[in-house]
UniProtKB/TrEMBL annotation:
<feature type="transmembrane region" description="Helical">
    <location>
        <begin position="20"/>
        <end position="41"/>
    </location>
</feature>
<dbReference type="Pfam" id="PF00672">
    <property type="entry name" value="HAMP"/>
</dbReference>
<dbReference type="Pfam" id="PF02518">
    <property type="entry name" value="HATPase_c"/>
</dbReference>
<keyword id="KW-0597">Phosphoprotein</keyword>
<dbReference type="InterPro" id="IPR036097">
    <property type="entry name" value="HisK_dim/P_sf"/>
</dbReference>
<feature type="domain" description="HAMP">
    <location>
        <begin position="187"/>
        <end position="239"/>
    </location>
</feature>
<dbReference type="InterPro" id="IPR004358">
    <property type="entry name" value="Sig_transdc_His_kin-like_C"/>
</dbReference>
<dbReference type="InterPro" id="IPR036890">
    <property type="entry name" value="HATPase_C_sf"/>
</dbReference>
<keyword id="KW-0547">Nucleotide-binding</keyword>
<keyword id="KW-1133">Transmembrane helix</keyword>
<dbReference type="InterPro" id="IPR003661">
    <property type="entry name" value="HisK_dim/P_dom"/>
</dbReference>
<keyword id="KW-0812">Transmembrane</keyword>
<keyword id="KW-0175">Coiled coil</keyword>
<dbReference type="InterPro" id="IPR003660">
    <property type="entry name" value="HAMP_dom"/>
</dbReference>
<dbReference type="Pfam" id="PF00512">
    <property type="entry name" value="HisKA"/>
</dbReference>
<dbReference type="InterPro" id="IPR003594">
    <property type="entry name" value="HATPase_dom"/>
</dbReference>
<feature type="domain" description="Histidine kinase">
    <location>
        <begin position="247"/>
        <end position="465"/>
    </location>
</feature>
Amino acid sequence: MKLRPINSISVKLGTLLFTIFFILIISIVSILYMFFVNFYTQDTIDELIQRSQAYAEVLSNHYDEALINHAGLIESTSSKMILVVNNNGDILAASEKIKQLPADYLNEVITHGYEGHGPTIASDWKNEDFFVTESYIKHDNETIGKVLMFSPTDLVRQVVTFLQKISIFIGIIALIISAFLIYITSNKVVQPLLKIMRVTKLLSEGNHNWKLNTKGSDEIAVLSHSINQMSNKIQNYEQQRTQLFVDISHELRTPLTYFKGYVEILLNGEAKSEEDKVKYLTLLYKQSGRLQRLIQDLFDLSTMEQKGFTLQETQISLETVMINALDLIGPSIEQKEIELHVQLSPFPIYILGDEYRLQQVIINLLENAKKYSSAGGVIKVLTYKDNNNCIIEVIDYGIGIPKKDIHRIWERLYRVDKSRSRETGGSGLGLTICKRIIELHGGQIIVESEEGKGSTFKIILPILEGMKGGD
């Protein structure tokens, strides 16, 4: 197995799991240790006190040699041991195991009790070999001896040693498990992450040909799928940006070429008459207007696509928006000898919107309708209410839009008929701007068209609550 650097994710994860697992086990062992030691020690001492008190009470009532010897015989069959002494410290009865203990130890225990230390003489299992308790034998309220009970402490030490060994064993197991987890995470998590890191680095360098494996449904697969999607979007964006630069360059080159040609004619004196000079100056003026519209449309679109862009929304009358827009565009439509039929809703309709931007949409749609309608044609404008929405329709009976192009008309600088669009001076950004403005108003714009029969652009906007007018 290839070793991983200490700062790798697999090592960090394995170390974290080992630490958590080890702390958890140590905590459990410590709790068991404390519970067992405290419980067992106290329970043993309580039992010794009860037994010593019981024997002392019996001997206080019936103090004779036979009964004393009988007490020693009873405890000889249990793990507990008994020692009965008189006031002089002489041993009257004792378990067989007691007799095997050193005399110095027994003298110390017997003397310790007479110094008045209470019923418990020895309870330190770490440093003592026995738990020891005592109870006094009394006759006519005078102490005539005492009963001492013993219980070995080696069982506690054995359990503590066992728990210590268990802790060491569990620590080793935790270390092995952590090493195994490092290996698993290295293959299942770290390797895919390293591949993701390499691919994202390639993406940052502009190489979008690499794709990640998206098999499975875990977080790595989801992340890989998201990165693949991001790569595709970046690739599409790069292609669109390149195409946009090409299109903008072409759009700028056309009027500038005209500019250069017309200016050269004027500078070279080829325009002899005043009529020719006016003609070329008029053409220069038209091309400058086209260039100005292109730059303004690019600026508007760029502004609206910024995150911080907001509409200047107020409560406005739809009728006012329509009348102002028609006043601006109407004369140019009439100049082309196209009939403009307007049918506005008879009921007042109010919306929350940016009046300038909405007028911009209406003018753009009417400009398009005018461009693609012939002299003597008809353009219709309708407004009406549909439930909680208001509808604006701009209908023309011009050349229409082919089915293959209808879904692309909202793209930047896209033209159905490029040569005709350039002749009519369009920037190719008008419909993109219209769609963006309507979406910012919480509405939608849709188109229905049939080639050779015309197009209908329908705008749907929400009516301002509380200002819905009549039906």
